[in-house]
């Protein structure tokens, strides 16, 4: 087994209201920043042991499917790196 760090980034799907991002975008615009759009996201870093990076990604994806993301309103991405 090898140690990996899986990063799961969970964000709301396009079209789902994101009040946190809307508030932040308005505040940034009041500060003089010009933005096209802003979306909020949650990022989870998971340290785990797995036989290879594919297995680590599969396990992290299962965690996202079962708990970290609501498939009705969220999309997520999984990236895996060997732990240092």
In short:
33% of the residues lie in helices and 36% in strands. It is built from 2 helices and 3 strands.
Fold topology:
Elements: E1 2-12, H1 19-30, E2 41-50, H2 53-68, E3 74-82
Antiparallel strand pairs: 1-2, 1-3
Number of strands: 3
Main sheet makeup: 3 strands, antiparallel
For the record, what CATH class applies? Alpha Beta
Helix percentage range = 25-40%
Report the total helices: 2
Distance between the termini: 14 Å
**Average pLDDT across residues?**
96
Q: What's the overall geometry?
A: elongated
Task: Write a structural description.
It is a single chain. This protein is of the alpha+beta class and 84 residues long. Helix content is 33%, strand content 36%. It has one domain (2-82): 2-Layer Sandwich (Mth169, Chain: A). The longest helix has 16 residues, at 53-68.
Which descriptors would you attach to this protein?
84 residues, 36% strand
């Amino acid at each position: 087994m090898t140690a990996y760090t899986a990063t799961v980034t969970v964000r709301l799907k396009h079209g789902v209201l994101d009040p946190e991002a809307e508030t932040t975008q308005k505040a940034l615009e009041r500060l003089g920043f010009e933005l096209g759009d802003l979306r909020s996201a949650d990022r989870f870093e998971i340290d785990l042991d797995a036989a290879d990076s594919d297995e680590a990604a599969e396990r992290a994806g299962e965690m996202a499917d079962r708990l970290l993301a609501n498939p009705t309103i969220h999309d997520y991405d999984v990236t895996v790196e060997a732990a240092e």
